[in-house]
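Fold this sequence, please.
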Amino acid sequence: MPLFTHCIVRGAHAEHAASTLHSGHRVIVLGQLRPPSPAFRGGQKGKTAELGVVEVALSLR
């Protein structure tokens, strides 16, 4: 069963990420995972969890 994760970024981190990162960029995020809840995406059953982001970094890979 897939796990869908919503990453929540707030404040200055969010502004900086929005102005620096673009669609398709690989990123690394650190934060606190909140408990998963049932979710449906495109008719597919799964779980969804939220990650309260503390740091965001562009992956150089």
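The mean pLDDT is 83. The chain is about 15% helix and 55% strand.
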